[in-house]
TrEMBL record:
GO terms of molecular function: carbon-sulfur lyase activity; pyridoxal phosphate binding
Cofactor(s) for this UniProt protein: pyridoxal 5'-phosphate
Protein name: Methionine gamma-lyase
Keyword list, A-Z: Pyridoxal phosphate
Gene3D superfamilies assigned to the protein according to its UniProt record, in alphabetical order: Aspartate Aminotransferase, domain 1, Type I PLP-dependent aspartate aminotransferase-like (Major domain)
One Pfam match: Cys_Met_Meta_PP
Family named by the database record: Belongs to the trans-sulfuration enzymes family.
Residue numbers of N6-(pyridoxal phosphate)lysine PTMs: K218
GO terms under cellular component: cytoplasm
Length: 400
């Protein structure tokens, strides 16, 4: 593997993004009283000195937070940080990734309209599209996002293109620059779930994407202590979300969680290269292991969508051979705890089989052909040799 911590070599995208993020996240102008950390504005409302201040604020002649379902200074600090990282004009924080996804999509599509979504998108986004959208008379066409012809065929007449590159179970890539160009030619708004790559490994706005979504519960927070979401984009697009859905649906981010996210963000450029390196080491060893049939990791893809990635996160999956007893393998692991989220400090394992059995009819994985022999690893910050020893002993115990 390349000596450079990004694995992509100095002077390439990865190192530029990381270097840029490092100073951006470590350096702040002092906060009130010279504090190096922002205060948590744990308040529901903000008062005005007099009638004129209130009237001017409501009329937009003056900017001051009014009520924390709208603006809150700690949350605004987090939003400004994400906007800067993504190279966006603005960002909006939400109480969860799903609050960000639903408020964003619903701001741009309405009854009688249609969106095009990548198949195998995150499960609850699929649930939103499958359960709520039919009741609102919004149609969703699912496409194999790795096939630009399939996307091109589905685009005409759509209002929004919903991407997630890579997808979070099979790690299929989309050529976001190409697909965005196709959508732009037809005036279609584009969005991407960038939770996996984060802005230190992929900057979708620089490839023309309009709206970048995150489950901030994952790498942005990075410590498995917060559920939160954020969307970044142009001032006009974020303005539309503010106007249409943000304060009316009410899924705002709490000041304390924004503060935790700001704390987590500071180490993003340190954590991601570690996740990447350990993930690649384990992926390589799994690939060579006799009880593994294939490894789903973007490093092994030759899809053009790889060109926008400046690095790899530590979440990937693999398919085991028939002679592996999957429940026994999962139960034998000590350092990979069994759990669904990812992006935190701790290693986790998800057997697709358990999840496929749980939600029949509402599982894009079942519908779009994820093998039940697929297992997903979130590679955390532990010593990679301890992780590998754990995996090796679990395979031994699980051999049928
Ligand atoms: C790829 C992806 N996008 C979005 C979400 C939703 O985020 P949240 O759980 O913060 O609502 C998740 C959550 O697991 C996810 O994995």
């Amino acid at each position: 593997m390349n000596e450079h911590p990004t694995g992509f070599g100095p002077g390439t995208f990865g190192s530029d993004y990381l270097a840029e993020a490092a100073t951006l996240l470590a350096h702040d102008d002092p906060f009130p009283g010279g504090a190096v950390v922002p205060p948590i504005y744990q308040t529901s409302l903000f008062t005005f000195a007099n009638y004129a201040e209130m009237a001017d604020t409501f009329a937009g002649r003056r900017r001051q937070p009014i009520y924390s379902r709208g603006d809150n200074p700690t949350v605004m600090e987090f939003e400004a940080r994400v906007a800067a990282l993504e190279g966006a004009e603005a960002a909006r924080g939400f109480s969860s990734g799903m609050a960000a996804i639903s408020a964003t999509v619903l701001a741009f599509v309405g009854a009688g309209e249609r969106i095009v979504a990548v198949r195998n998108c995150y499960g609850d986004a699929y649930r939103l599209f499958e359960r709520l959208f039919p009741r609102l008379n919004i149609k969703v066409d699912y496409v194999d996002g790795s096939d630009p012809d399939a996307v091109a065929a589905a685009l005409p007449g759509a209002k929004l293109l919903y991407l997630e590159s890579p997808t979070s179970m099979l790690f299929e890539l989309q050529d976001i620059a190409h697909l965005t160009r196709l959508a732009k030619e037809q005036g279609i708004v584009t969005s991407i779930d960038n939770s996996w790559a984060t802005p230190v490994f992929q900057k979708p706005i620089s490839h023309g994407v309009d709206l970048v979504l995150h489950s901030a519960s994952k790498y942005l927070g990075g410590h498995s202590d917060t559920v939160a979401g954020v969307v970044a984009g142009s001032a006009a697009h974020i303005g539309r979300i503010n106007e249409q859905t943000y304060s009316s649906l009410g899924g705002k981010l709490s000041p304390f969680e924004a503060w935790l996210l700001l704390r987590g963000l500071r180490t993003l450029p340190l954590r991601l290269p570690h996740h990447m390196k350990s993930g690649l080491i384990l992926a390589e060893r799994l690939k060579a292991h006799g009880q593994v049939e294939r490894v789903n990791h973007p490093a092994y893809s030759n899809h053009p969508g790889k060109a926008t990635l400046a690095g790899y996160a530590g979440l990937f999956s693999f398919e085991v051979t028939e002679d592996v007893d999957i429940p026994a393998f999962v139960d034998a692991l000590k350092f990979f705890r069994i759990g669904v989220s990812w992006g935190g400090h701790e290693s986790l394992v998800v057997p697709a089989k358990a999840s496929l059995e749980q939600t029949p009819g509402l599982n894009s994985m079942a519908r779009f052909g994820v093998s039940p022999r697929t297992i997903r690893f979130n590679v955390g910050l532990e010593n990679v040799e301890d992780l590998w020893a754990d995996i090796a002993q679990a395979f031994d115990k699980a051999k049928k």
